[in-house]
């Protein structure tokens, strides 16, 4: 009986976390650059392949003020792509490419994660956007 209750609680936590992240879907994908001259910014494009339990590439390096275009594709199961520092949370259906574009308006290292539970390695499925 205790085992059934623990399974129900774990399931409720996973579902609750999923819906909390989905609330961020209303956030804008494009973030305007703040006081950054347009002449210094560049457009940088990256293709990210997502599969159990990794992002490839795992690290993306850009400069503050750059426009970033991501072409993201899951090649195995349903995944998510969350870069919450920039208001991005996308569901990734296998075989479909999702395009995301935003302007980087802050410096630092920002973690992107899988936002859809995809199995035992889900918790460790992370990458980094490094903004110089």
Sum up the structure in keywords.
single chain; 132 residues; elongated; 9 strands; 1 helix; 3-stranded mixed β-sheet; alpha/beta; Immunoglobulin-like
Structure commentary:
- This protein has one domain: Immunoglobulin-like.
- The chain is 16% helix and 40% strand.
- It is built from one helix and nine strands.
- Strands 2-1-4-7 form a four-stranded mixed beta sheet, with no helix packed on it.
- A hairpin with a 2-residue loop joins strand 1 (43-51) and strand 2.
- It is elongated.
- The protein starts with a helix and ends with a strand.
Q: Total number of β-strand segments?
A: 9
Tally of discrete structural domains:
1
CATH class: Mainly Beta
Elements, N to C (H/E): HEEEEEEEEE
CATH superfamily descriptor: Cupredoxins -  blue copper proteins
First-to-last CA distance: 53 Å
Report the sheet-strand fraction: 35-45%
Given the C-alpha coordinates, what overall shape results? elongated
Output the CATH topology: Immunoglobulin-like
Q: How many H/I helical runs?
A: 1
């Amino acid at each position: 009986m205790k085992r059934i209750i623990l399974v129900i609680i774990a399931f409720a936590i996973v579902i609750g976390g999923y819906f909390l992240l989905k609330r961020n879907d209303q956030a804008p994908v494009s973030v305007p650059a703040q006081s950054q001259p347009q002449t210094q910014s560049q457009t940088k494009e990256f293709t990210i392949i997502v599969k159990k339990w990794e992002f490839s590439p795992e690290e993306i390096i850009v400069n503050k003020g750059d426009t970033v275009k991501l072409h993201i594709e899951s090649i195995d199961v349903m995944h998510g792509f969350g870069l919450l520092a920039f208001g991005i949370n996308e569901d990734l259906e296998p075989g479909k490419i999702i395009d995301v574009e935003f302007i980087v308006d802050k410096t630092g290292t920002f973690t992107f994660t899988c936002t859809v539970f995809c199995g035992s390695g889900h918790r460790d499925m992370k990458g980094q956007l490094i903004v110089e």
